[in-house]
Amino acid sequence: MFTKKGDAAVLTKLSEAPAQYREIGERLHSIIRESAPSLEPIVRWGLPFYVKDGKDICYIKPDKDFIAFGFGEVVNPAREEGAHMHPVAWTITSLDAATEAKIRALVEKAVA
């Protein structure tokens, strides 16, 4: 497995996405870095991941038809007590203030 580390590696990977998703990906990267500066950005398996103490916290998955944002199975801040299904990823079509706030809150909860 080949891993590239750092903001530049992640931003280079996100720059490969189609224009409409590239902008969302770059904004997601900024939100994650601002909300949890302790996370290390890396590119592994062709995807930007954000890790802490060797654990995957969250990731961005750019594609030609969408961009997805998700959390690892181990650290999932969207997990609901008593629920039988737990969201781990969301397809993002645009970002508004409310969506950005929700993402920030989830990232902050994941690293708390």
Rounded to an integer in angstroms, the radius of gyration calculated over CA atoms is 13 Å
Give the class-level CATH name.
Alpha Beta
> Biggest sheet, open or closed, and with what strands and sense?
6 strands, antiparallel
Tell me the span between the first and last alpha carbons.
29 Å
At CATH's second level, what is the architecture?
A: Alpha-Beta Complex
Number of strands: 6
Count of separate DSSP helical elements: 3
What would you call the shape?
globular
Q: Which assembly state applies to the chains in this document?
A: single chain
* Strand and helix order: EHHEEEEEH
Q: What's the structural domain tally?
A: 1
The portion of residues assigned to helices is 25-40%
As laid out across the biggest beta sheet, the strand order is: 1-2-3-4-5-6
CATH topology: Aspartate Aminotransferase, domain 1
Report the sheet-strand fraction.
25-35%
The poorly predicted ranges are none
Average pLDDT for all residues: 92
Instruction: Quickly give the structural class.
Output: alpha+beta
